[in-house]
Amino acid sequence: MTADVPTYLDGNAAAGTLRELFAVDITAAIGQCAGCGRTGVFAETHVFMDAPGLVARCSGCDDVLLRVVATPTDTYLDLRGLTYLRFSNQT
User: Name one Pfam family in it (predicted).
Assistant: First the structure.
């Protein structure tokens, strides 16, 4: 008997799915704060744009949910403050 060998692809296989996902209006997405568990639409977050980038904080506990920093050559996206970010498939 042979052992089950996991089959996987490299990250490039996710390109199409992720391109479709991030082509939507993120402000309508539902997110959950990893800090306090508050759930709500992203549009309800407190967004600060006077830093070197954009910072979104939870409107409940003020933890950082998301950071976006753009340099001349790259854009950095940090979502570690979100347990999840849910997008509707309905148009």
Answer: DUF6510
Give residue limits of the domains in the chain: 13-86
- Distance, in Å, from the CA atom of 23 to the CA atom of 72, rounded to the nearest integer, reads 22
The one-digit pLDDT tens for each residue of the chain (91 residues) are: 566 777 778 778 888 877 877 888 889 999 999 999 999 999 999 999 987 889 999 999 999 999 999 999 999 999 999 999 998 887 6
Cβ proximity of 56 and 47 under 8 Å: yes
Cβ atoms of 39 and 68 within 8 Å: the answer is no
pTM given for the model: 0.81
Name every residue whose Cβ is closer than 8 Å to that of residue 7 and which is 6 or more positions away in sequence: none
